[in-house]
Specification:
Arc Repressor Mutant, subunit A, 61 residues, 0% strand
Length: 61
């Protein structure tokens, strides 16, 4: 693959993790077990991240 491309400003690690989680969920049609496998984490770890993302998005509203 071409690898990850970055502009002059690096995104935060939090932002990159959120983007990876959301992309894995999109690619698997929302299947948490498959998304977790794709990301190399347990389903429980993925679920924790999803809950954090959900809480963070609710804080933005």
């Amino acid at each position: 693959g071409a690898g990850v491309q970055f502009g002059p400003e690096l995104p935060t690690l939090k932002r990159v993790c959120a983007e990876l989680v959301m992309e894995a969920m999109r690619r698997t049609g929302g299947n948490q077990a498959m998304a977790a496998g794709m990301l190399g984490v347990s389903r429980q770890a993925l679920n924790k991240r999803l809950n954090k993302l959900l809480m963070a998005s609710e804080d933005d509203e």
